[in-house]
Every structure is written in structure tokens, then in C-alpha cells.
């Protein structure tokens, strides 16, 4: 697989690119970057990120310039269907990350973790080592640090040279962090993974397979965490309405 794979298979949703790529190809794309020691920023995009990116130019530009942008949210998959793309599955960030961890275990790639609370990241790393015994965790640091600590954190990352760095600082903080340091950490693949550390630490359970199969993981999480409802609505319906209106305007043109 060559480095232009993602760029050749992209479709824009509300001016935000989304790579039309399946899991095995996404993993191969990242592996190619790792083997060539090329920087790679992975974004697992969803409607909320797109809508926030439309309001925040800095975040929007970062998302648009990412090297690999996989469709995470079910809203993005629905939007792709509006454009006639029906064979691209949802690629949840945690599933892509888990597949990358498996590859790291097989190939002995060095990895790092940044984010979450200390007890969460410690437990997550313990569970990951148990599940993927070949992984070499060379860096881990919780996400509770002040701006003045950031340069020391970057120096430590440079010293240990992880090939893949999983960043769980939440949106937009993780995207801003990755973009801010992408030149000095040009040897690494970095992926923002949001709340994945909590799942790996078994502090939070993923939705049952039934919900995942039918793209209803968001519903399960909302039932478990009702406070999420304010965040999801009206973002999801507004996003889909805007996509539909944009599609209709393209037909008129």
C-alpha cells in the first residue's frame, strides 16, 4: 500500500474530508507510515467534531489536514449513504486502536499513552499488556498536566521514541496537542482516542454487540450516561439536515 491511499479515496462532508477506507486497509496504511518513520495524524471523525470544526477554524483546519480520517460516528456513515457510499463500514476509534495494538504486539512496535486519570491509564496499560503481550509500552502519562509541564512531556516522548502515541485528552484538546507538536514528534503516528482508556481500564463498558451492529452505540451510551443527551442533540439531527441540504444544493448546481 502506498502513502497516497487515503488521499485517493476521500469524500468531503460539509467540506470535511472522510477517507473511504476499511479496517484492514486503515491498519496497513498506518503500518506503512510506522515502517517509514513518517508522521501520521489519525482522526476518528464524527458529526460533533465536524460541527465544532465548522465553528472553530483552528480545529477545523487541523481535522481537514489529518493524514487519515476514518468515519467513526454513525451520523457520518448515514451522511456517506446520502452521497451513495454504502459499502464503507463505521470505524470506531477504539476498534481501530485495538487493531493497531494487535499489530504493535505482532511487530514489537513501541507505543505510548497520554491522557485520562493516573489510575485509569495505569489499569489500561496493565490490561493492554495482558491482552497484547508483545506490546512495548515506552511512555505513559496521565492527562492532568498544566501548560508548563508540556515541554518536559514532549522531551520524554522524544527520548523514548514511541512509534504510535495514543492521545486521550478529549476533543479538541487532543487534536490541538497533536497539531502543536507534530513537527518535533515527526517520527510518530498519533491518534486521538477520547475515552478509550476508560474502556481499556474496564471503567466503562462498550455497548453490547447488538447496539454496535446496528450503529446504536451512541444510544446505549446515552441511556447509561443521560448527560450525553445535551451534547448529542441537537448536533446529530442538525448535522444530517445540513448534509441533506448541501446534497440537494449540489444537485441544483
Corresponding CATH architecture: 3-Layer(aba) Sandwich
N-end to C-end Cα span? 36 Å
- The Rg value, from CA coordinates, equals 18 Å
Order the strands across the largest sheet as they lie in space: 4-3-8-7-5-6
Total domain units: 1
Instruction: Indicate the structural class.
Output: alpha/beta
Question: How much helical structure, as a percent, in the residues?
Answer: 40-55%
- At the third CATH level, what is the topology name? Rossmann fold
- Average per-residue pLDDT, rounded, comes to 92
SS elements, strand count: 8
Classified in CATH, the superfamily is: AF0625-like
Strand content: 15-25%
Total helix count? 14
Q: Main β-sheet: number of strands, strand sense, barrel status?
A: 6 strands, parallel
The shape, in one word, is: globular
Order of helices and strands: HEEHEHHEHHEHEHEHEHHHHH
- How would you name the oligomeric state of the polypeptide chains in this document? single chain
Highest-level CATH class: Alpha Beta
Low-confidence stretches: 1-7
Structure description:
The structure is a single chain. The protein has helices at 5-8, 23-35, 47-55, 57-65, 74-82, 93-107, 118-131, 150-160, 173-181, 196-200, 209-213, 217-224, 228-232, 235-252; strands spanning 10-13, 16-19, 40-45, 68-71, 110-115, 136-141, 164-168, 189-192. The protein is an alpha/beta fold and 253 residues long. It has one domain: AF0625-like (Rossmann fold). A hairpin with a 2-residue loop joins β1 and β2. α5 (74-82) runs parallel beside α14. The protein is globular and about 55 Å long. Mean pLDDT is 92; it is low at 1-7.
Amino acid at each position: 500500500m502506498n502513502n497516497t491511499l487515503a488521499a485517493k479515496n476521500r469524500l468531503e462532508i460539509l467540506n470535511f474530508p472522510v477517507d473511504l477506507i476499511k479496517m484492514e486497509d486503515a491498519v496497513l496504511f498506518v503500518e506503512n507510515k510506522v515502517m517509514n518513520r513518517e508522521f501520521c495524524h489519525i482522526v476518528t471523525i464524527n458529526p460533533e467534531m465536524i460541527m465544532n470544526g465548522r465553528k472553530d477554524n483552528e480545529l477545523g483546519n487541523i481535522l481537514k489536514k489529518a493524514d487519515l480520517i476514518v468515519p467513526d460516528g454513525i451520523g457520518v456513515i448515514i451522511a456517506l449513504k446520502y452521497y451513495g457510499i454504502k459499502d464503507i463500514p463505521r470505524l470506531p476509534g477504539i476498534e481501530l486502536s485495538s487493531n493497531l495494538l494487535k499489530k504493535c504486539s505482532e511487530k514489537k512496535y513501541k507505543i505510548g499513552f497520554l491522557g485520562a486519570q493516573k489510575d485509569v491509564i495505569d489499569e489500561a496499560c496493565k490490561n493492554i499488556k495482558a491482552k497484547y503481550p508483545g506490546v512495548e509500552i515506552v511512555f505513559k502519562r496521565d492527562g492532568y498536566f498544566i501548560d508548563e509541564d508540556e515541554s518536559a512531556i514532549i522531551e520524554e516522548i522524544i527520548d523514548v521514541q514511541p512509534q504510535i502515541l495514543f492521545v486521550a485528552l478529549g476533543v479538541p484538546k487532543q487534536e490541538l496537542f497533536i497539531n502543536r507538536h507534530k513537527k518535533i514528534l515527526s517520527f510518530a503516528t498519533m491518534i486521538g482516542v477520547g475515552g478509550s482508556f476508560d474502556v481499556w481500564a474496564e471503567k466503562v463498558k462498550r455497548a453490547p454487540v447488538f447496539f454496535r451492529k446496528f450503529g446504536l452505540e451512541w444510544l446505549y451510551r446515552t441511556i447509561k450516561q443521560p448527560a450525553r443527551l445535551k451534547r448529542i442533540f441537537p448536533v446529530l439531527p442538525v448535522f444530517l439536515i445540513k448534509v441533506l441540504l448541501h446534497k440537494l444544493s449540489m444537485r441544483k448546481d
